[in-house]
Specification:
Blueprint lengths: L3 E7 L7 H13 L4 E7 L13 E6 L2 E6 L9 H21 L5 E5 L5 H13 L2 E6 L5 H5 L6 H17 L2 E4 L2 H10 L8 E3 L17 H9 L6 E6 L8 H4 L12 E6 L5 H11 L4 E4 L7 H6 L3 E5 L12 H7 L4 E4 L5 H9 L2 E4 L4 H12 L3 H18 L2 H16 L14
Parallel strand pairs: 1-2, 1-5, 2-4, 5-6, 6-7, 7-8, 9-10, 9-12, 10-11, 12-13, 13-14
Antiparallel strand pairs: 3-4
Helix pairs in contact: 1-15, 2-3, 3-5, 11-14
């Protein structure tokens, strides 16, 4: 009989969030080995104003989905965020505890700290094994950007999430620098059983395409971007990327008249970025909304270089998943990243881009201009080195099989957790 596993992951198909797409891939990959139930929010695209039900039941192939209808969230408002997170947390716990015969609970670190706490509660009250996938360490992430300045709240959050890690049967991080953060939390003593398994993109779907490709050319035509040198950022325009400061330096490219910064996505700082561009009458910046999943491979290939950025202090806390899509598309990476961070390591090892430390804004401007004046052949070779590295080291199937191997190994283990044992996956 197949083991039952409940994924509590807030974002799931057809949501555009990168974690939603990654975990949809994972559940689809595991559905023949496990009976899978997913607890996630009801995406805005599926909301029906005439249907006020709190819970919506759905299926995707063999996967059962329970979707929670949550209040609208204004990402610029802390109160709105708290209301949204609290609603998700209490409803997810309620649904989880109603599930029968759970062998596994799989949670991620979203919402911050509470994602892991959902798994801890399920483990304590239902005796299920808990796999805790840390996509972002908190409160470390909130501290890095000054989002939470209360020492009391930060201390409580740190204690709770350390408890989540200690109680988990296995902790998964998505970068080697993040494993180091986990080890520091426990001062390298009695570190929970853990693995590093990278995130991914579908490298069979996202492949290098020339700008003359009909669909890529259509994207350029639709957005008035033909004959432009495009510096693209595609992803969440959130608090952890310093984009609200980087945007201020886009006005220093007037001697590069065909250079265009294109920001694709939504997020907490988008309005602030758009306001600055409008106030300063900067004509070399364009904002677009999230692209449909079927169109992302074309929008990524429309760029000449891609921005992969993190705020200072995010090293060991988070890995920008967008780097995998950029490397799959064979495009050069312009990394605003801390030395020693996972994404920095990938760019450095693959030689697929240029690197600048966060908050070095003058160097940012100088090196973007250097790439602008590079030969097309140099940029092409740089991007293709990233694609070659991804094919050799970061393939989707390999990463998903590591999850399958881990889950099957935990199936045969007793419920007593083996602390400090590393799974070599």
């Amino acid at each position: 009989m197949k083991p039952n596993i409940v994924f509590v992951i807030n974002y799931f198909h057809p949501d555009y969030a990168s974690t939603g797409q990654i975990l949809t891939d994972l559940c689809m990959h595991l559905q023949h080995d496990f009976n899978i139930t997913v607890i996630a929010e009801l995406p805005p695209s599926m909301k029906d104003n005439n249907n006020r039900k709190k819970f919506h039941y759905d299926e995707l192939e063999k996967i059962k989905i329970i979707r929670i209808q949550l209040p609208e969230v204004d990402k610029t408002s802390k109160l709105s965020r708290l209301r949204y997170i609290a609603s998700y947390f209490f409803n997810a716990v309620y649904i989880l505890l109603k599930q029968r015969d759970m062998q596994f609970i799989y949670t991620i670190s979203q919402p911050p700290v509470l994602g892991g706490l959902i798994g801890s509660i399920g483990k304590i009250l239902r005796g299920s094994k808990h796999i805790y996938n840390i996509q972002d360490f908190n409160p470390e992430q909130a501290e890095a950007v000054g989002y939470n300045k209360s020492k009391l709240l930060v201390g409580v959050a740190r204690w709770v999430d350390k408890m989540n890690c200690r109680l988990a049967d296995h902790v998964i991080t998505v970068g080697y620098d993040m494993r180091e953060t986990l080890e520091r939390r426990f001062k390298n003593r009695n570190v929970p059983s853990n693995s590093v398994i990278n995130n991914w993109t579908d490298e069979k779907d996202i492949v290098p395409l020339d700008k003359t490709h009909p669909e890529v050319s259509q994207f350029l035509d639709e957005n008035d971007l033909q004959d432009k040198f495009i510096v693209m950022y595609s992803g969440n325009l959130g608090l952890y990327y310093d984009l609200e400061n980087l945007i201020k330096f886009t006005e220093r490219f007037k001697e590069c008249p065909d250079l265009m910064f294109v920001f694709i996505g939504e997020g907490a700082v988008k309005h602030k970025m758009m306001s600055f561009v409008k106030e300063q009458q900067i004509t070399q910046v364009k904002f677009l909304g999230f692209q449909d999943k079927s169109r992302i491979k074309y929008s990524l290939n429309a760029a000449d270089i891609h921005l992969v950025v993190n705020q200072k202090g995010i090293k060991g806390v988070s890995v920008p998943s967008k780097i995998y899509g950029v490397m799959a598309a064979g495009k050069p990476v312009f990394g605003v990243l801390e030395d020693g961070s996972e994404a920095f390591r990938l760019v450095e090892e693959s030689k697929c881009g240029v690197l600048v430390e966060p908050q070095q804004y003058d160097e940012f401007v100088e090196k973007v201009k250097q790439m602008y004046f590079m030969k097309n052949s140099e940029l092409f070779e740089m991007g293709m080195r990233g694609r070659s590295y991804l094919d050799q080291n970061l393939r989707r199937e390999v990463a998903m099989d590591k999850y399958r191997t881990l889950l099957h190994s935990l199936t045969s283990e007793p419920n007593a957790k083996q602390k400090g044992v590393e799974m070599n996956l």
